[in-house]
Amino acid sequence: MNLLTCAAVVLAASLALPSLALDEPQIIPLAQIKPGMKGVMYTILAGDKIEAIELEVLGILPNTLGPKQDIILVVLRGGLAEHNGVVAGMSGSPVYIEGKLAGALSLRFGQFSKEAIGGVTPIQNIYDADRTTGGAQRAEAALPQEAPGEAATPTQFALPAEMARRVGAGDGAYLTKIDTPLVFSGFHPEVIQRFGPQFTAYGMVATQGGTAAARPDDAQLKAGDMVSMVLVKGDLSLQASCTVTAIVGDRVFVCGHPLFGYGEVTMPLARGRVVTTLASSFNSFKIVNAGGVIGSVTQDRTTAVVGRLGAAPRLIPVELTIATPSQEKKFRFEVMEHTKLTPLLVAIATMNGLVANTAYSEGMTFQLSGGIEIEGHSRVNLENMFAPTDQAVPDGLWLALSVQNIFTRIFTNPYERARIEKVTLRVDSIPERRWATIENAWSDKSEVSPGEPIDVKVLLRPYRGAPFMRTVPITIPAQAAKGPLRIVVSDGESLNRMSRFFSLGPQSRLAGLEQLITLMNRERRNSRLYVTLIQPTPTLLLEEKELPNAPISQINVLDQRRTQGSSLLLRESTAGEWSLPLNQVIAGQYTLTVTVK
Fold first, then answer.
1. Beta strand pairing status for 435-443 and 585-587?
2. Are 408 and 442 contained in the same domain?
3. Cα gap 47→183, rounded to integer Å
4. Are residues 589 and 448 in the same domain?
5. What pLDDT score was predicted for residue 162?
6. For 54, 86, 393, 440, which has the most beta carbons within 10 A of its beta carbon?
7. Domain check: are 292 and 349 in the same one?
8. How far apart (Å, rounded) are the C-alpha atoms in residues 289 and 388?
9. Is 219 helix (H, G, I), strand (E, B) or coil?
10. Does 110 lie in the same domain as 196?
């Protein structure tokens, strides 16, 4: 009887195989699925061979993913299931019951489970993912920012107490998304360790891998094959891999769960090539290389990721140059265009270019330069310096986070969608800590006349070096009123805080993206020493314009015409600003006062 039963299951599996390639696979409605029914799941564990794994239905979990989003609870049977369990990368593996497509394996049962128990997203809900419109990018779906060494927790779906008892699980049993392998190729292990946890909350497991050469048959997909969603491609590559559930016409349904849950998205869809599957009692996972690009991902929804075969989507070209006194390396790659992902991806690539360089070492100062080309707008100029610190994080992290912040400000602007045409980044490494603190400042005169030149002397203390002095000549404005005049000696960041408060305030304060770019390009650099004259007269900030010494009559007129939030009145005005390049990071602030006679 056992031999006859096995033969029957194998025969049923072989009969079901041809249906994997049909455009319209026959489906079994959820209402017809009952506990105890037998089925087969198809997936790849190595190479291009699709394996059949037997399974048994344990029951239906209603409203698990949300209203009317049920899950079919199954247990995998046979030697392959006992050896591997539910494997990261199996997400989307098609499940057939009575020879009909029932859905996609998408959830796993906790960790260290003795049995390979998983959840299946019903096929009707998977097809619905391509019928959803609107909600291009959920505001709450931003990548979480963890503290160093801290990982986010993936979403857990509690298992009902009755079902937990039936499967022999204790209280608190839960289902969670099957991990999606997030394959880093060309990345240093330190970068993967640093940024990988930011993807953990999305059910992704960071692994190292590579890319496979494109083949003529890459686009000839069938259910059970692997595909990769490409985030970065080129000298560096980053992609997430799932299994194909079904192909209907030119539409490809994969994963059975969301990748990020961003709704409407655009990213390249590539063929996935499984190298092997690593079995583990903790979490088995597939090692997948991305092959040729075969289309575009269009939907990232609760029940599936949907792509279309055909042309590849547009990517943002990035050229990154890492220069040291002994060598210069260039990296050329492309990143997907997305408000939340692109800033992080460019930061990861920048960090990787630094630490993967053989000349990299802690204690180096980095000089950033370059620009961001935006269609229909001025170039965003990048220029700043980053000195090492004594904090327990890589020195290059601050540069990477600064790049991420710049891209975030561009992508999240409230005025229009920024279409970035090209990004050029250059990082020059200086093998020493170039950093100095403002320790003291004074002027050669305490009483001055309007239009009189004076010298401001500044004492700076470098890192592990003797203090040095710099002189900044300034001129008292000819229209300066009698009374006290403040002289602020500072670093660039202190002066930028006011501008950032202004530009990141209510969206109506600026007229558009071009004015935001103007403000960004006017921001002070941290490798310069700044001397600013402040006088006690009001300044009116109107859109991106700064109107110092504004007369009361002008303020009243503009106050009647302005819209709420379009301007800001400050109690003081800037009477002049001078700076001195020092080729090292300046920190600190010092204030002195002179009296205008």
1. parallel
2. no
3. 17
4. yes
5. 64
6. 86
7. no
8. 36
9. coil
10. yes
CA distances from 316 to 360, 372, 405, 421, 422 (A): 27, 11, 17, 6, 6
The tens digit of pLDDT for each residue in 12-70 reads 444 444 444 445 789 999 999 999 999 999 999 998 899 999 999 999 988 877 777 89
Domain check: are 252 and 219 in the same one? yes
For residue 326 the two structure tokens come to: 């002994």
The domain boundary, picked from 382, 404, 430, lies at 430
Do 381 and 483 belong to one domain? no
Q: Provide DSSP, 535-556.
A: ESS-EEEETTEEETT--HHHHH
pLDDT number for residue 442: 96
Range of the domain at 95: 1-313
pLDDT tops 90 at residue 422: yes
Above 60 in pLDDT, residue 111?
no
What is the C-alpha separation between 21 and 15, in angstroms, rounded? 12
CA dist 228 and 269 (Å) reads 6
Q: Is 267 in contact with 297 (CB distance < 8 Å)?
A: yes
Q: Which of 313, 348, 375 is the last residue of a domain?
A: 313
pLDDT for residue 72 is more than 50: yes
Kindly report, residue by residue over 193-219, the tens digit of the pLDDT: 888 888 887 888 888 888 888 999 999
Question: For the whole model, what pTM was predicted?
Answer: 0.82
Query: Could you tell me which residues come within 8 angstroms of residue 210 by beta carbon, excluding any fewer than 6 positions away?
Result: 183, 185, 237, 289
As for how many domains the chain has, the answer is 3
* C-beta separation of 365 from 429 below 8 A: yes
